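Is pyridoxine-5'-phosphate placement plausible here? Inputs below.
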Amino acid sequence: MELSVNIDHVATVREARKEKFPDPIHAALESELGGADGITVHLRGDRRHINERDLALLRKTVQTELNLEMAATEEMARVAVEAMPDRVTLVPEASGEVTTQGGLDLVNVKSDLEPYISGLKRKGIRVGIFIDPDMAHIKEALKLGAESIEINTNEYTKAKDKKEETLRISSVARTAKRDGLIVHAGHGIDYRNILPLLRIPEITGYSIGFAIIARALFVGLRQAVGEMNTIIKGA
Ligand code: PXP
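Reply from A.M.:
I modeled the complex. Tokens:
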């Protein structure tokens, strides 16, 4: 079970003052020292937190897996090929959104992502897609040549009764794994709501940002990552 720490919010604080600190590069190092198996950053079209300078330096300094979340645009393909993260996770991006609003709609929005994905794979970048927990998306993700999916856990984290959403995520994860996809999960996960998800063996990786960075304000980032890591690996 792996933990990829999303460090976007460290850059959000930096950009609030347009300062040089806190530096996401420092955050990546602290996260790795806390036991992170990977570092995730989302390069947005408006560059409101992570920017190209961060990405280039992270590529040079991150010793675990570097995962770049990005919209499937031509601009981002160029950035990815230049930066060469280990993995790219394709996400939808709407201007003005506070955070990613949902998974990539592979069913209703027919965009031909197959050449886009194969182009990144040919360069040696592994490609995953962020999807809502819905069986129809798995079939599409496979057709497009994705190697992994990240199941959007937002609905789950908002649900009062987690049982139904846990079952939904669990059956999607099982099918995806059976069909050969690596299964990750993320969005809105915190130190408590992760517990039922950890009983789903098909989910082998978690992408967690906000809860860890928020806790880091009080205990420091290395410890905040360490605590989440203990929960994940101890399950
Ligand atoms: N996964 C994806 C695709 C995301 O867009 C985000 C938010 O940037 C996360 C995971 C992490 O979510 P959170 O910050 O709520 O842990």
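Short version: The first helix runs from residue 8 to 17.
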